[in-house]
Amino acid sequence: MPKHYLGIDLGGTNIKAGIVDDAGRVLSRGSAPTPGKDGFEAVCSAIARLGGEVAQRAGLTLGHGSIAAAGVGTPGLIDFDHGAVLNAPNLPGWTDVPLAKRMSDLLGLPTVIENDANAAAFGEYWAGAGRGDGHNASPPDPLVMLTLGTGVGGGIVIGGRVLHGGFGLAAEVGHLILHPGNDGLPCGCGQRGCLELYASANAAARRAKEAVQTGRPTSLRSCTEPTAKDLFDHAQAGDVLAVEVAQGVCNDLAWTCITLARVLDPKMIVFAGGMALAGDWMFDRIRRSFRERTWRIASADTLAIVPARLGNDAGIIGAAGVAWEVSQRGVLP
Amino acid sequence: MPKHYLGIDLGGTNIKAGIVDDAGRVLSRGSAPTPGKDGFEAVCSAIARLGGEVAQRAGLTLGHGSIAAAGVGTPGLIDFDHGAVLNAPNLPGWTDVPLAKRMSDLLGLPTVIENDANAAAFGEYWAGAGRGDGHNASPPDPLVMLTLGTGVGGGIVIGGRVLHGGFGLAAEVGHLILHPGNDGLPCGCGQRGCLELYASANAAARRAKEAVQTGRPTSLRSCTEPTAKDLFDHAQAGDVLAVEVAQGVCNDLAWTCITLARVLDPKMIVFAGGMALAGDWMFDRIRRSFRERTWRIASADTLAIVPARLGNDAGIIGAAGVAWEVSQRGVLP
């Protein structure tokens, strides 16, 4: 059995790909624009072309037994039983498209598909935050990853596998409801009060802007349009209003950690995405708020709340990792 | 391999036991008082005695190859790696006691232990609400069960197995935080605003009492101390205040269903316990509140929100079921 996997991270704008070994190391990588407006078949061809390039770059050839399998992390809602993408808002015309089958044909490799946020979570579990600084015989399980960006993405690994749920919709933590009443902000998903309206990078920026508009004194006033980064920068510099707003965001994330702890009892919660770059200042506050508010039945210190480690590689490592995991179970398509 | 399992449901007051076949049918049952104050060894002996009785009643003998394994559902915090109960508030002196090993010696059977709420959830998955009206080749997975009693107990089945979590503390849904602020009621667990302070049977009774104390007109005034049953009875009879309070409880349970749906994406949520006897009136309102508030990305009708079916047998069937499940995986101790 060859020990190399092709990992593909499909986004609405770019495709990233890489060859990854069975220890989660990236041997080659590449990227290409996503020809989304040209439709499903064009995107599949672009993926296959890029896959061939990164294979060659690693000294391997597709479909000649030197690569065990391919994994594709894709946006959208997935039918895991049929390897199909049911819909993907950023990919026009993707309605129940047989992505796994098509890529398997084009690549000449067994191919599994996975939701992009789930794949990234598996990457961190397998080769990132979950692996820690060295070889880890027993990675933290369950593990939850939250990606704080435009929205809040989520992925869960339990029992060494990605949790799909009953309808392929597990780990949609961005749509946990924090404020269920009529005062909860309306979300595009149809709910009110979703987490991502309060604790994504976009939400942090909005909360900063609203705070400036109250007229209270703040150094944030110097920013034309404060970003999440501005908010955390000014908070770290000691601006009282910025600290207050940033602490509010951290409290909401800590509350989310408590929710996840009561349901899943994870060993590790990983935060990724631009906002996680706020670093120790943010993590210290999330951890403190978690410890102050979680129960005293068991130690609050057993749950690790940590930053992601794989950065932009999480998608390709995770997609390759999912292919590796499925092949380990002997159930490759 | 014999097809019979001994299921034991250990409570602070009573021990229940039964012989259960590999389809989840109870062949014999019995119960005995829990000699809790006499300590761990006395309780183990009482369990073994009762186990012998129910075996005999089913025409079987312990330790002679006619019973495959025993499962014990126990209150308290469990160390699953060592089959030990770390502590159990209602069982004096139970501090890190080797329950699985001791029962295995006394019964002459491989013995697994499980948290009582988890065992009951597995019972409903295997042979109760999850089985439905007939033979079910593919039970609803994930399944979550909430038991609405003095508190709110919880159990989760994923991938055909009970979810333990990283530290044996998964599915503590009674301690999901509904109200994280300082206005959240203080809970014995150290948190504020826990679900069980708003939506257990005890909480429903308290909410009814508080509503009566506002002085608003209500038929509940005729009850000296309204119970959860009184609340739902008066609501069904049309009392405006009772409807309002009962609806509030149902809304909190629906919110909890949304939380569980976003994290786990279960196919079924089962409500058990005294309050679930409020029946269709309560279930209709929980389902409606869920549908009104959950996202529109996927159909709200895919998640079944249903009453438990096994009643008092859930504990013994579930404990036997866990033993069956572990033996199916070939990892009996």
Q: Please tally the helical runs of chain A, counting DSSP H or I stretches of 4 or more residues.
A: 9
Strand tally of chain A: 13
* Average of the residue pLDDT scores of chain A: 95
Based on CA atoms alone, the radius of gyration of chain A comes out at: 20 Å
CATH C-level category of the largest domain in chain A: Alpha Beta
| CATH topology-level name of the largest domain in chain A | Nucleotidyltransferase, domain 5
Q: What's the overall geometry of chain A?
A: globular
Tally the structural domains of chain A.
2
What is the CATH architecture assignment of the largest domain in chain A? Answer: 2-Layer Sandwich
CATH superfamily of the largest domain in chain A: ATPase, nucleotide binding domain
Give the strand line-up of the largest sheet of chain A: 3-2-1-4-8
Approximately how much helix is present in the residues of chain A?
25-40%
Which residues of chain A form runs of ≥5 with pLDDT under 50?
Answer: none
Largest sheet of chain A: 5 strands, mixed
Order of helices and strands of chain A: EEEHEEEEHEHEEEHHHHEHEH
Give the N-to-C terminal Cα separation of chain A: 15 Å
Give the quaternary arrangement of the chains: homodimer
